[in-house]
Amino acid sequence: MGGDHGTHVTVPAALKFLKAHPEVNVVLVGLQDAIEAELKARHAKTGPRLRIHHASEVVAMDEPPQLALKNKKDSSMRVAINLVKSGEAHACVSAGNTGALMATARFVLKTLAGIERPAIAKLMPTMRGTSCVLDLGANVDCSPEQLYQFAVMGSALYGALNHNERPSVGLLNIGSEDIKGNETVKAAGELLKASRLNFYGNVEGNDIYKGTVDVVVCDGFTGNVALKTSEGLAKMLTEFLKEEFFKSWWRKLIAVVAMPVLMSFRHRMDTRRYNGASLLGLRGIVVKSHGGADKLAFYYAMEQALEEASSGVLSKISETMSGHAAASADPLEI
Amino acid sequence: MGGDHGTHVTVPAALKFLKAHPEVNVVLVGLQDAIEAELKARHAKTGPRLRIHHASEVVAMDEPPQLALKNKKDSSMRVAINLVKSGEAHACVSAGNTGALMATARFVLKTLAGIERPAIAKLMPTMRGTSCVLDLGANVDCSPEQLYQFAVMGSALYGALNHNERPSVGLLNIGSEDIKGNETVKAAGELLKASRLNFYGNVEGNDIYKGTVDVVVCDGFTGNVALKTSEGLAKMLTEFLKEEFFKSWWRKLIAVVAMPVLMSFRHRMDTRRYNGASLLGLRGIVVKSHGGADKLAFYYAMEQALEEASSGVLSKISETMSGHAAASADPLEI
């Protein structure tokens, strides 16, 4: 039900997803009437692979998370997360209110052992492939221990999705030297150095897109600013490029000739392909789609959920965390 | 002497600057022999508008700022800043070690009344023109009062350069609502609301390039990450665009046809034009050029210094700060 377009986006995306993945079933959670109307408009029907699970309430995009959690016990996002909790669903995908989704997921699913707080993680395109960046906004202030936990979570996600046993981890900072940054980041660096993770060291903002490391760890404030600044810059550059090609009839003609190149460039930097953000650290898989996502973008968020569900990322996090606990208990082993 | 290319960049940039601004004189500060050799190679001579001021030491790009400050009293950056202090020069431009430049400038020039710490400010291109963003890395941890002072400094700089009496100020945050962000940012928001500045409210990362406000205020950690992330993304996108145009001989042909458009796009997003970063809040004008700057980029940093020196930005900051002090002393006036 969530996002700027509700079922107009989520339902067609689900139909596309069902076609692409014949081994997966989909449960549409929300207002039965709205979902049925959307299905009908798309000439689609429920069946063994597609069912509707009614939920009588909807969390508004601007609703305070704590109020949504307290008052809307039959909201679509709450019910969908309940399905994950009960094991009826392997993952939940939502385009709804991020804060409410995080608060509800945390309340219903709880965090994995050793994880204090979940984080929002995303795969971002880089010059060398993709990197996982977290936290992107769930935790404004983070302790060094939390940043370490993010590193464990990000490594597990990146490793599971890319079949990489030891992804490299970088700590986002404002210089590569150990002495740079604030006290929290410095202490997190020490924890990471002493850990069994493949810690590269400090990285800077430009390293995200350079692809210097597989996993970039930062607090949610910094990560959110980096992500949104990137969105803004990409939009501005696309706009400028378009403007340059529309300045005269002659240039428009050139644009027509260059169209195939421009289109493949556009496809390559299409942020819709990187839409799914994982709520990591929970005892269940929850993927957040951008609220403004269109059908294709929401489809990619569902793909992200499927990949996570198939790759055993949760057990990977638990393993590392329990290994960490064992290591801490036995100082000789460090 | 500073930057990755030393006099090979600074000297030709200075020569270009002298030609473009017949009303301005330039003092080249550094190792006399190196500067003379570079001038000779460029068939240029010293004269009434161009003189050399010898300084026997050079601060290395990776030298710890405090050591440079303590041990290199005759470094080119120290001597250049001394010239600003004594009034012999109206501004200092350096491509050298940022930390050392900041530490030296702060030690020699001192901060303006009411300003606790200087900040690094830069004009960034936006969809609506330019915005001033600060701090970009001088202050890792900032108090709400310091963020307020950055807002005063940024407003003065933007206002002076753009002849705008009341530039709008945004506080960089991870959501537009007042309740978002950490305690420091929330408290800074309260200070800004109560101030005489034209405070817009919270802005997010994407607002920087949208040009939502004239001045964007943040701590140096966040600002540095936003700036460097932008650099990385712009580089990646340019690289991708180039790759797309080089994929086949047919596409290369299209690139030739589209060249005028691509070149004007490139010019428009040319970061060299935004190279100068101001060390704001000092009793003197110091502009930092990117260490990797080429001749044109360093030239633009000199332009930035000239504009600052001609626009009375320092007295503007002092005025606002003394107005603020008066307002604080008289509660009825707020």
Account of the protein in words:
Chains A, B: Pathway: Lipid metabolism; phospholipid metabolism. Chains A, B: It holds the Pfam family FA_synthesis. Chains A, B: One of its GO terms (molecular function) is phosphate:acyl-[acyl carrier protein] acyltransferase activity. Chains A, B: It comes from Chitinimonas taiwanensis DSM 18899. The structure is a homodimer of 334-residue chains. With 334 residues, chain A is of the alpha/beta class. Chain A has a domain at 123-273 and 309-334: Isopropylmalate Dehydrogenase, CATH 3.40.718. Chain A is built from twelve helices and ten strands. Chain A has helices at 7-20, 32-41, 65-71, 76-86, 98-109, 144-162, 183-194, 205-210, 220-245, 249-268, 295-311, 313-329, and strands at 26-30, 50-54, 91-94, 119-126, 129-134, 168-172, 198-203, 215-217, 277-280, 285-288. In chain A, the strands form two sheets. Chain A has an eight-stranded mixed β-sheet with strand order 3-10-9-4-5-8-6-7, sandwiched between helices. Chain A has a two-stranded parallel sheet with strand order 1-2. In chain A, a hairpin with a 2-residue loop joins strand 4 and strand 5. The interface between A and B is large, with 53 and 53 residues.
